[in-house]
Amino acid sequence: MSPQNLTNVYNQNPTLQGQYTLQQYLDLFGQGSTPTTPTPTPTPTPTPPSQGIINQNINQYQSGGGGNNPYMPNSNVNTNYKPDYDFRQFSEYGMNPSTMDVKQMDMNQNYFNAPTPSATQQFLSKAINFVPGIGTVKKGAEFLGNTLKGIMPINERAILENELRGAGIFTDDIGRIAIGPGGKYNTPEGIMAGYNANKMTDKTFDKRTGNIGKSLQEKTSLTEQQINDIVNEIATTGKYSGTLTDEELGVKNLFSNLVNVNMSKFNFKNRKKKSQDIRNFREAKRIQDELAAAAAAKSKAKALAAIKRQGRADYNPNIHGPNNYGRGSDGRQSFDSGQGFGVNSTTGGPVSNRTGRGRTDYRYGGRASYFNGGIVSLRRR
Predict the structure, then answer these.
(1) CB–CB of 221/199 below 8 Å?
(2) pTM
(3) Backbone phi, psi, residue 333, to 5°
């Protein structure tokens, strides 16, 4: 199927759009470039003098309008946050919880385990199997989902957007931060409306902070140092403890913009870090499951396939150990031996520093043994 046809399928399928970016979808079919120009990260309109950095149309968006405008409350925005219960268990008790740890999780069922389906949900799930044709389709979809689970790339955008929802920050169907039902623009949750969440970095927030800071210095008695102190406090605590207001400073929304942009940055950074931790955890668990399945089947081929995936992966502390020893001379990611040196993922030989370069690929050192779930097992040949 041509790139254009794939693009047409993607553009007409909201489910695909919710799971993958266009480029991710094309990559699944080996297409290297997007045939259409991607939507650029929205650029705020120029600052009108009376509104500080707030877009001059935002007040209109707050009180009226329609469609998918990200600047106004939208009842169609997805607000459903789904906790990753497996990650919660891992973050508290690691990959292999003890019997005592399991008991602790059992005492906090609502936090560590997904809710048990209601009697009605269980009945409907069983009843659908008896609908002519549906039962077969359902089982086929479940089989396909389980088959693709180990093949399809982990959807980092979906993880990030879900974690943002957990902080009350919502996105629309094309990934822009949008104001949810009953929300407002000039809040930590809504102040970045219109920006593509998956493309935001510290610079996205810092640029806005810089513009606001200049305006505040021009229009109020605040000094650069005072503004920096406020920004640094929020960066550390996530809150502003002072008493200054827009009214007291004689500006409209400008000071509250400064506070909300930086509170939003604090929340966003925390959620982005958590989403990356979840991504790393899922990749590590996928490899661990592959190794366990290979050991159960006593399949050397499957084990080697999982090992190759480990070496190709970017550094992941859940896979390669707490210290990053970089890539060896073969270009593959090395492992932390836990003994103060790294281990080459191809030869099993020591890596002497954390750059992947230096004294690598010693002639001594046996192959790594992964069948028992350990990272490496070194021995002298």
Answers:
(1) no
(2) 0.67
(3) -65, 135
